[in-house]
Fold these 2 entries.
Entry 1:
Amino acid sequence: MSFCMSRLAPCILVPFNLVAIFAAMSKKVRVRFAPSPTGGLHLGGVRTVLYNYLFARKYGGDFLVRIEDTDLSRYVQGAEEYIFDTLKWCGLEPDESVQHGGDYGPYRQSERKDSYRQYAEQLVKNGYAYYAFDTPEELEKMRHAPLAIGVKTEQTHTQQYDHTIRMKMRNSLTLSADETHKLLADGTRHVIRIKMPENETVSFTDMIRGEVSFETSLVDDKVLLKADGMPTYHLAVVVDDHLMRITHAFRGEEWLPSAPVHLLLWKYLFGLENMPQWAHFPLILGPAGKLSKRDGAKYGFPVFAMNWNDPKTGELTEGFKEKGFLPEAFLNLLALLGWNDGGEQEIFTKEELIEKFSMERVHSAGAKFDYEKAKWFNHEWIKKTTVDSLRSPVRNLFEQNKITVSDDVILDKVIGLVKDRCTLLPDFIQQSSFFFKAPESIDVDAVKPKWNEAKQLFFAELIRNYELAIEWNAHTLENNLKEIAAANNLKPGELMLPFRIMLVGGKFGPGVFEIAELLGKEETIRRISSAIKMFG
Ligand code: GLU
């Protein structure tokens, strides 16, 4: 892959990553997830966490979370807490973080503010960066300046602060040393910008994409240190990956265009032998291109891991958790959004993923998110999950729906009976609330057309029979019904639908005799007799 566009000037190829590959192989694996606390964690974010986590666990390494909060204007209250709650729900707990501690803290970049300036100054001293004193007005004027001769114009193009214009701006490259010192001594607002070299091609070997190269002349002179003294993402990510001894840096494809800046910072500041190996994960695609946070509301599926309540807009975005996904299913479906093990297997436990995951099998092409498939994963996981593990989430759901479940033995039996019919956790309510409270409505219309006196008499006799029953289990109840039906010349098949509707209210649910067994004698008889009155 190449980000290098054709040019007349010669390219100097710098094989940055070979050194890094060998260096990284000999060290303890250390990976990081580096979110900016700007909102809820969407599918792509959690997938980045997952792949980092799997890689760390596979190689017995460390997985850390670093909060990248240097852009104060984008900081969102509650986002950091949300990130950790999500990791907890997913079972992807880091080894080191703001919440977990560790030897390489602080793990919040705003608390490391003072450590970045020295690196920016070092770059200036060595001629790789410069002070820029341009005012907002001067920058605005620059953006609309005519483009350099030979540069193709596009209507939307605005002039970037780059090698074509830097010598016309107010910075330490154009001012004399004395003028620069004076401005600095007077405390004039300034930033530090990287001086992107002209006509160099920089490249690295991405673990997923292979060799990726960029032409430096096409990249602008990014700000490294802002006027408020905070580093930008570019400087902070490189400094911290170095100080935190990161061996592998994995992130989404959207960060690929930043790679040339980071590569050069590694080269200028720390030497290539310390540079982590990089991998850029493929985009997650929604129904119309890159999956956006807005797609959730638009197409009716969740895109965030958990409910996200945006404090700025007051808007609530539904999460996979609240929609009724099990964390195991969520991880499983995320793992396969961009990776497969090369075989037919689709259902993986976390342990299997740790064993089988490999960066080489992550695809570079975008991964299409299919909500129907996501639900299939959840259905398979509900089937696979033990009653023991389902008890607590299902009980919570009943509580939320104000349905009293007093007996855990019954609850366990109910879960065992209906779990194969549930795709999302709330299906348990629909599939089994009738076990705990009489149905609110009875589908009388489904029974009435075929209801007659013979059936009425049959159910009256069934009640008498069941009242006398000594054994109360599905098998006996079925036998009794069949005997009475035979004695009255009725086909059991015709009686099943009314019987089911009497007990559950509609045409759904597990085996009707299993339902009666769990409802118990008293409740079964009560429901039959009250329904007979309605049908009559
Ligand atoms: N802070 C960046 C983000 O919000 C991290 C990118 C990286 O991992 O380098 O995604």
Note: Confidence is low (pLDDT under 50) at residues 2-24.
Entry 2:
Amino acid sequence: MSASDSLSNPIGVYDSGIGGLSVLRALQDLLPGEDWVYFGDQARVPYGNRSLEEIRQLADGVTQFFLNRKVKAMVIACNTASAAALKYLRGRYPELPIIGMEPAVKPAAEQTRSGHVGVLATPSTFQGDLYASVVERFAQDVAIHQATCPGLVAQIENGHLKTPKTLRILREAIEPMLAEGVDTLVMGCTHFPFVIPAITQISAGRARVIDPAPAIARQVRRVLEKNDQLSPRTSAGQTTYFTSGDALRMQRQIQQLLGIQTPARALRWHAEALEVE
Ligand code: DGL
């Protein structure tokens, strides 16, 4: 497919679950004329404790599903899947522009006054080379504090954005950081922006929070511009939502997190391929 054939084709957005919706809303705001295909791998969420090899295989199946839907670009709206599979997928699908996430250590290192930055992300993200390279390149002059927030992704998937358990998980992660002087917190997992109100309550003005979604949206626009792939459409684009989990549950989650009512469709994993139910 040449670039000009694909201008009005959709862009695939992928996460292990509903975390990528925090990126999707920034994408929809910045690029309102584009069509989007969102996929949340809710049959396999959370990815955070899976091996990088297993995540790479899942990400490959998702990419093939997107290619069958003729996407013109793909956004891996998941730090964990980016850590495991971004480099691999770019090598395997050189024709497809793929934009991934990396923890926003660079802006955090620029903005911190205390020299202490906290990063909240999954264990797999911390294990990947992408994170190591970001820290190596941008965090030479600051102290990095890491927390994996066990159980938090599941809390967010279950819609428990400010329950006592969610607040306890966050407190256990953030309070030791604040005690050591952290004044900047990086959301290194795309699920976590949905608990920013809870984080703000706990940090009570002691730390700023960095949600990378707007910067990722700008990066997607730059890539589309560079490839002459921006949709020429002036009317609003469409988004189609898919889950490997329960479609009605995803519909309710979209309503809770994005405030919109829209259908979602179920897909099933058959061996390593995703098929419409
Ligand atoms: N939303 C994810 C991320 O950005 C993954 C969470 C998970 O599945 O563990 O890392």
Note: Residues 15-17, 19, 45-48, 78-80, 122, 125, 153, 189-191 surround D-glutamic acid (CB under 6 Å).
